[in-house]
Amino acid sequence: MLAVDGVSVWFGGVKALDQVSFEVPAGQVHGVIGPNGAGKTTLFDVVSGLCRPGEGRVSVAGRDLTGVSPLRRARAGLRRTFQRPQVFGRLTVAGNVLAALDWHGGGGGLAADLVGWPGRRRLERERGERVAEVLELCGLTALRDAYAAALPIGQRRLVELARALADRPSLLLLDEPTSGLDADQTVRLGAVVKALDTTVLLVEHDMSFVMDTCDRIVVLDLGKMIATGTPDAVRQDPVVRAAYLG
Ligand SMILES: Nc1ncnc2c1ncn2[C@@H]1O[C@H](COP(=O)(O)OP(=O)(O)OP(=O)(O)O)[C@@H](O)[C@H]1O
C-alpha cells in the first residue's frame, strides 16, 4: 500500500534520513519511533509531501507520489493529522466532519442549489449518514452538536481524526496522536485506530500506545532505520534497546 524506497533527506550537512526503506501493507497500522532528532518528522513530511527527498521514492497503492504536491496526495486518498489538532472551533463536531466531506462539492453548482435536484438530496442524505457513522466510530455521537472550540484537547483530537476518516482515506498519517491525551483518552484512541480498516502510519513517543496499537514498528536512529518488526521483536532487539529503549 505505502512503499518508502531508499529515501534520503539532507538539511545542509545533516543527513536527516539515510536510505530509509519499508512497506506498509493495506489495512495495517505501522508506528515510527526513535529518539529526538532520529528523523521521524522528516519521514512524515516526506510521505505527506511537505518535504521532497534528495533521493528515493514514495508510492501509495503502486502510484509514485514523490514530488507530488500535498493537495494532489490528498486527492489520491492520503490524510494526515497534526501534533496540534486542526479543527474548526466555530463549527459543531458534526459540522467539522461534514466540512471534511464537503470539499468534493455538492455537484451541479448553483442550479442544483436552487432547484434541489433529487440527486443532490440523495447526496446530502448519504453525507449525513457518513457523518453519523464516523462520529459513532470515534465515540463522538453524544458530542455531535457541541462546538469544537469548547472541547478539551483529547476530544478535539478525536474530532480531527473523524474529519480525516470522513471520506475513507486510503492512507492515514497520525502525527503524535496521543499528545495531550489522558490515559483513558489514549486507550480510546488506540481502540479507534485498531478498529479502522484504513492503512495507518503514525509517529508517536508514547511507547506503550505504539506497542499496543501497531502491527509493526519502524525504528529510526540518526536518520537510519535500525530495525523494523512486530512490537515484540522490536522490544527485544538488542540494537533498539541499546539505541533507544535503554
Ligand atoms: N528544516 C531543517 N533544517 C535543518 N535541519 C533540520 C530541519 N528539520 C530537521 N532537521 C534536522 O534533521 C534531523 C532529524 O530531525 P527530525 O525533526 O526529523 O527528527 P525527529 O525524530 O522528528 O525528532 P523529535 O522527536 O525531536 O521531533 C535532526 O538532526 C534535525 O536537527
UniProtKB/TrEMBL annotation:
MF-aspect GO terms: ATP binding
Pfam family, one: BCA_ABC_TP_C
Keyword tags: ATP-binding, Nucleotide-binding, Transport
Classification via CDD domains: ABC_Mj1267_LivG_branched (cd03219)
This protein's record includes keyword ATP-binding: yes
Residue intervals of the ABC transporter domain: 2-245
InterPro entries assigned to the protein according to its UniProt record, in alphabetical order: AAA+_ATPase (IPR003593), ABC_AA/LPS_Transport (IPR051120), ABC_transporter-like_ATP-bd (IPR003439), BCA_ABC_TP_C (IPR032823), P-loop_NTPase (IPR027417)
Name of this protein: ABC transporter ATP-binding protein
Organism: Nonomuraea marmarensis
